[in-house]
Amino acid sequence: MLPDADDFPEILLDLAVPHEDINELIALRRPLTQDPAAMLLLEECVEGLVRDMGEIGGAAPWADERIAQQFTGQTDERADGQSHRRAGGETEAALGRCFPAYVFLAALPYVRAHHDALGIPPEVSRRTLADLGRNMAVYRRRYGRGGVQAPRWVALHFHGELFHLGRLQFQRARVGERTAGLLASTGLPSDPDALCLSLHIPDFHGPLSPAACDRSMALALDFFARHFPGERYTAGVCHSWLLDRQLQRYLGADSNIVRFQERFRIAGKTGEPADTEPVQFVFGNPDLPVAELSRRTTVERAVGDHLRGGGHWYIGHGWFPLPTG
Description:
Layout: H1 8-14, H2 19-33, H3 36-50, H4 64-71, E1 73-77, E2 83-87, H5 90-118, H6 122-129, H7 131-143, H8 151-157, E3 162-165, E4 168-174, H9 176-184, E5 195-200, H10 210-227, E6 233-240, H11 256-261, E7 265-266, H12 276-283, H13 298-308, E8 316-321
Parallel strand pairs: 5-6
Antiparallel strand pairs: 1-2, 3-4, 4-5, 6-8, 7-8
Helix pairs in contact: 1-2, 2-5, 3-5, 4-5, 12-13
């Protein structure tokens, strides 16, 4: 299921895996392949990931608990017949952190075959799947060691549901109950099962400039019409702390974030506070003490000063109609 060890370096580089993680992934391949239970779990995870390839929501749920159980220790039988867990060593711990990467590596041929069947350009496929490397870079920045930060998120890329087009990423999704209500308030079709394009803003990809966003939208409209001609998308939607209108108190009208907000009709403040979201994406770690947040940039000052002043941040829910022709 896994690529040969000699092929690992080039494949990992194509997926933008950080250079400092490549040797570890190569070294861990051998103990992984020599563990029958781990390989069985790998096979099951790959089958769940590639099942109904391209179907929205079709991938099996990510097996967090089973992966943790596999690599945090093994069950021994005691003399009294009771079982207990013994702690795993450093190799087991590393395999637990990196196991999702091996799932994605094993699934890669299926993903590429799916992209080829749809006629998706190789450069779009490469940039989309390179989000694995981006997430590994985030994990290393946060914890100082190898691992995959958000396997369930990366699974969308490897299941044919999300594509990277220019500055933004676009996920084929269903409107859902929440957004259906928002669309209905502005006279747009409000079927929860209708399709939409969900916009995501990747990190480490330069300014969120209006020109870059315009180009992404143009690329997306052409891409989905060309490669998914049978799908009709009601709206572009976005659910992000970047759409919290409170940011306008701190940022100028010409800031990229404010101008990004202006693309959307944004619902009023809803739901519970999401203070860790901007801390995570601006400062790299959601658990940083608020009092210690740096103030080097305008956005850092906005996020930190607002929290230090007793305020809260919220996920903004925005939408705009897409051309139907």
